[in-house]
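Please describe what follows:
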Amino acid sequence: MAGVHLLPLLCAMAFGERIQPTALPVWSNITSGSFLGGAASSKKNFTSPTLVFAACLILLGCGLMSTLGDGRDFYKPTYGYQLILGLGVGLTFSGGTLLTNINSKSEDNAAAQGALAQARILGGSIGLSMATIVLNKKLSSGLVGVLDAAKIKSLEQSLNTISDLSPANQGLVAQMYTNAFNDQMRICTYLSAAALLAAIATYQKHPASVQAMRDKQNAMAEESSGEGTELGSTVCSAADPPESKQHDGRLHSEQSLERF
């Protein structure tokens, strides 16, 4: 996913400001995939098949994205590839969340969801770091002998310095960025293959019931509501108004006087 963000950068170098494809298709289809993944397991537990199908889509999308050429029309196939990739990522988000929710205990559900969210953040950070390392390595190895070390360092830090280069060197830098993007997506393809094996490992012959999960959640909600009502009654009885206590004291004194 981190490599997809290089698409506007690549197109800006090749075409200037006229054509800049963004990562909008992949992000829009992530939303669609998340909805479809939740709908697929709304009545029956299909989380494992959903994750396997999602891993296949991600593997296919990353594999296709790693085959981009370095011509002026390299960006055109990316729109379709991003749709495939985004759908797989969205299905993974919803399927992983449901799988964790269904198979975890009620008291451990919050911790499990938190761990899943942190794992996504950690994976994104590692992926972004790997993408940056691959790009810088490609620039430093491919431009040695063409540009001096200072200019290569400036390109690694900011693309704005490309305007200081000659047209021939600008084309070479653009080719290096395209090659780096292909390498990044190739690494993502290898990782997606490992993710597919992990998704297959989630298969269960008799998966947990979605209805049982809902019944468990409803029971917990009712129990929490009952405890809240009981606690409220206890608090109200403990906080008896001082006026009523004084009134009860006066009645008790009047009754004692009447006896005398």
User: Anything to note?
Assistant: The radius of gyration is 30 Å. DSSP finds nine helices and no strands in the chain. Residues 54 and 107 are 29 Å apart (CA to CA). The chain has a mean pLDDT of 77.
